Protein: RNA 2',3'-cyclic phosphodiesterase
Amino acid sequence: MRLFTAITFEDQIKDSLWEAMEKLSFNVIKGSFTAKDNLHLTLNFIGETKKIELVKEAMEEAVFAANIKSFNLSIGGFGRFSRRDGDICFIGVKREENLLGIQKELTNRLKSAGFDLENREYKPHITLARRVRFAGGFRDDELASLIVNLSQKVQKISLMKSEHINGRLTYTEIFHVCLP
Structure:
């Protein structure tokens, strides 16, 4: 099973992110947009594993050890990572102490449980589209000015399964741990 841990969003946040994606699409010649139902903030990408119980235990231990209560997540600002096959376009997420704390604790617990995770700095973002090629004259600042800053209370972390169903990439929550 292909797994990752994440913060999921309320429908209102997904609607606002979808509006930003529609604005972005007017400037795109080519790209693969994230499905509205799949919008999330990744905490850790785990990959293929059958050790689901170990992941669940690591999540529970991380929430307990981090001792982080529910917190507000601030979302806003457009960005992109340049890639040879096209850019990854995203909405930024404020690097907030509670977010970084739970992500770091979760990373440590998953690594201790034997999972091989990436060793790069965590850069919280919400992916809108991949392999994007822009029309001439596109300016990041023009799109950034159209994106409203958003906020959501984070009350849980989720274990997500990634699979193709009827030819469509689908993310499904299979477990979650509530923040105290």
Helices lie at 11-25, 52-66, 97-112, 140-146.
